[in-house]
Amino acid sequence: MTDQLCECGSNLPAEACCLPYLNSLRAPQTAEALMRSRYTAFVMRDETYLLNTWLDSERPSHLEFDDRRWIGLKINSTRIGTEHDDEGWVNFTARYKVNGRAYRLEEQSHFVRKDGQWYYDKAEG
Ligand SMILES: [Zn+2]
Predict the structure, then answer these.
(1) What is the whole-number distance in angstroms between the Cα of residue 62 and the centre of ligand 1?
(2) Ligand 1 geometric centre to CA of 8 (Å)
């Protein structure tokens, strides 16, 4: 387990990447880090983490996980969203399979930082 690569595709060990965020040991410092950790949370079906990192105005009351099996994340581009910003955008492609068929989801996500904590707002454009 210790040297297992992170699900988010960073090529880093999970424990040096998204796991400390999911385990509330650390908070992501950039919008991209939050994006990666939320993808990993979808892979691991960590509803608590996903809801806790959702901007309250957009947060659903609960999440239903469907039959999607997430198989890869690629960050296409980022716009601001550094540790010095209060908002940022991440454009990504996530690949998944349902019943053996492969699909891809491309999204431009908007993130907001409040009280030093990054939150997912919603998909934009
Ligand atoms: Zn990761």
Answers:
(1) 23
(2) 4
Query: Which CATH code is given to the segment(s) 14-123?
Result: 3.10.450.50
Distance between CA atoms of 52 and 120, rounded to whole angstroms? Answer: 9
pLDDT, tens digit, for every residue of 1-51? Answer: 557 999 999 999 999 999 999 999 999 999 999 999 999 999 999 999 999
Residue 38, number of CB atoms within 10 A of its CB: 27
Q: How far is the CA of 44 from the centre of ligand 1 (A)?
A: 12
Output the six-digit token pair for 40. Answer: 């990993």
Phi, psi of 22 (to 5 degrees): -60, -30
For residue 51, how far is its CA from the centre of ligand 1 (angstroms)?
Answer: 18
Interval 49-63: pLDDT, tens = 999 999 999 999 999
